[in-house]
Design a protein that fits this description.
Cation-dependent Mannose-6-phosphate Receptor, Chain A, 2 helices, 13% helix, transport, MRH_dom
Length: 224
């Protein structure tokens, strides 16, 4: 009886230590755990630039994701958890040193480029919805349409931001490779905030690589 009690105490103490250690570990970028402890890994949606000498992978994307803005008159180029891989220049109201960190942008009918926000890889849950935010884009609030909004006036401190809501969709895509359907939902009247919806199998949840998981109570009993 005593040995069983000691074993239980040892297991509980060890598992608590594992849990505390895991809580202190930074999460892998572009991953999140739901309130119900279901792991989500959307890093497969990040489009990465091909390095010099790298061979092309079959089915790999060579451009960032795009959402058609049917009502806004512009199309939106977006990457997930990473900067866009397109070479963008002369971004309205954004310092040149930050262009390489822009994760979403659009080009107006007159050829001006506007940022919707900087790279960010931390997801949050809003109720049951998985959400990713980008902030600190081009100045906003001074125009009448999505095409011509900001003139880079230093007095205008408001900046564009956007939110992507990810929805589980296991039926519309090939299961062999990450895929996503991105759509423009709308913008605020002052064109400072933009909303998008992304449907992807990766938003259905699952497990992150087993090597990144802590040893649970069941596994510990098995080891012992």
């Amino acid at each position: 009886m005593k040995s069983g009690w000691l074993l239980t105490c040892f297991v509980l103490t060890t598992c608590s230590a594992f849990a505390a250690e895991e809580a202190l570990k930074p999460r892998k970028p572009c991953t999140v755990q739901s309130p119900k402890h279901l792991d989500f890994d959307l890093s497969g949606l990040s489009v990465l630039p091909k390095t010099e000498g790298q061979k092309s992978t079959k089915g790999a994307r060579n451009e960032s994701w795009m959402a058609i803005g049917y009502d806004s008159g512009v199309n939106y180029t977006i990457n997930i958890c990473a900067p866009v891989i397109e070479d963008i220049k002369d971004v309205e109201g954004v310092d040149e040193s930050k262009w390489q960190n822009i994760s979403a942008f659009y080009t107006s009918e007159s050829g001006k480029t506007f940022s919707l926000g900087m790279q960010h890889s931390e997801f949050v849950f809003r109720g049951r919805k998985l959400v990713l935010h980008y902030q600190d884009g081009s100045p906003c609030g001074g125009g009448n349409s999505a095409s011509e909004l900001a003139d880079g006036d230093s007095k205008n401190t408001r900046r564009k931001s956007m939110m992507i809501s990810f929805l589980c969709d296991q039926d519309s895509f090939e299961s062999s490779k990450p895929n996503m359907a991105l759509s423009f939902v709308g913008a605020s009247p002052d064109f400072c905030h933009y909303g998008f919806e992304a449907r992807t199998p990766l938003a259905c949840g699952g497990s992150i690589a087993p090597t990144e998981q802590a040893v649970g109570p069941g596994s510990l009993f098995g080891i012992m």
